[in-house]
Write a structure and sequence with these properties.
Helix content is about 35%, strand content about 10%.
Length: about 375
């Protein structure tokens, strides 16, 4: 078999665990019926001509609906020209890296972070460095990547932080990327306000999708929000990579976007409360802090000598519960695991009942064990 030209380090772990656990804790909002009802209604608004290639920027009605939703959330004045529709948020991130980075460019990434950020960036030859809360902490860079609410810890950007990071990006002549795929899942925090002038500066892009807020990762529709001139450049590159997003998926996304903003917060708050209450009865982790947003708890193991990688392997093998070890999100976090609380309550209750069967052995990781299953 021919070998791959690049190493995709975390995929082996995700695939291994997904095969062993039927459910991975992604949000389940019971949207299937609403989606099926909405598809016929949306068909007349999406120009569905399967005999031609889709608009590489995305169908106009979908882009209008996305712009209206962003305006409602952030007090902006976007039009469809600010939007580029992509095959999920992951393609959006790849498209940005492919368009604006050269091998050897430095990219500052908010840490800890979603596993695929480093995979995409490093496999395109970029050098990834951590970015902390201070905008000047990682200068100079070609790109800086923030996420709010954060995956894995649910943190939100502070009020005004986006403008400060955007100014640092402008001074460097670099691009600021803000991943907001969890921005309609803010339970106890406040969504930071945004400035239209910052977004129109040509140095800022935002990424979002229907996967998390709507619980529909299978629809595979995401989008980039940015200045129209940047959107035009990205559209030209996207057309050469994949022609255009699926018309069927865009039709489904248009139906989903008819739902109210923040429509699932009550369900999410209930599930977060169930998880926090159950964790208080376990001695496996230190006391959990309620995350203001997102779907995850970023838990620290109670035993300071235990390995998160080994613990997650045991949780899967002995209890059938899928957790993600900290090293999948950043180096130096082998005392952390990510636990999702996005599933239905009955599923959460069953998972915590299984976790109660586990004990946390007090043992140091084996000598020389710094990575496992290809995770860095």
């Amino acid at each position: 078999m021919i070998s791959t030209c690049r190493q995709w380090h975390e995929l082996s772990l995700i695939e291994r665990q997904a095969r062993a656990a039927r459910h991975d804790g992604q949000p389940t909002w019971d949207l299937s019926e609403a989606l099926l009802r909405g598809l016929p209604a949306s068909a007349g608004r999406v120009d569905f001509h399967a005999e031609t290639y889709p608009d590489p920027q995305g169908e106009r009605e979908l882009r209008r609906r996305i712009a209206a939703r962003e305006n409602a959330k952030y007090g902006l004045s976007l039009t469809e020209d600010h939007i580029v529709v992509t095959h999920g948020a992951t393609e959006a991130l790849f498209l940005l890296a492919h368009t604006f980075l050269n091998p050897g460019d430095r990219v500052a990434v908010q840490a800890p972070s979603f596993l695929f950020y480093r995979e995409i960036l490093e496999n395109l030859g970029a050098t990834v460095v951590p970015l902390n809360a201070e905008p000047d902490s990682a200068r100079p860079t070609r790109m800086r990547l923030l996420h709010s609410p954060s995956n894995p810890d649910g943190r939100l950007l502070a009020e005004g932080a986006l403008s400060l990071h955007a100014e640092a990006a402008r001074a460097d002549g670099s691009l600021l990327v803000l991943d907001q795929v969890y921005d309609e899942l803010i339970v106890s925090g406040t969504r930071p306000r945004e400035d239209q002038a910052v977004l129109d500066s040509g140095h800022v892009v935002k990424v979002n999708s229907v996967s998390k807020a709507f619980g529909c990762p299978g629809v595979r529709i995401g989008w980039i929000t940015t200045a129209p001139a940047v959107a035009e450049v990205l559209t030209g590159v996207a057309e050469r990579l994949r022609m255009g997003p699926s018309l069927v998926a865009q039709q489904a996304a248009t139906a989903l976007l008819e739902r109210p903003v923040d429509g699932n917060l009550e369900l999410l708050a209930e599930r977060r409360a169930i998880a926090l209450d159950a964790l208080s009865t376990l001695d496996l982790f230190e006391e959990a802090t309620p995350p203001p947003g997102g779907l995850f708890l970023w838990l620290k193991l109670a035993d300071p000598h235990a390995s998160a990688q080994q613990f997650c392997d045991r949780a899967l093998a002995e209890a059938g519960v899928r957790l993600m070890p900290g090293l999948g999100f950043w180096q130096g976090t082998d005392d952390r695991v990510r636990l999702s609380f996005g599933a239905v309550p009955d599923y959460l209750d069953a998972a915590f009942d299984r976790l109660r069967q586990l004990t946390l052995p007090s043992r140091r990781p084996e000598a020389g064990l710094t990575t496992a299953h290809g995770i860095r």
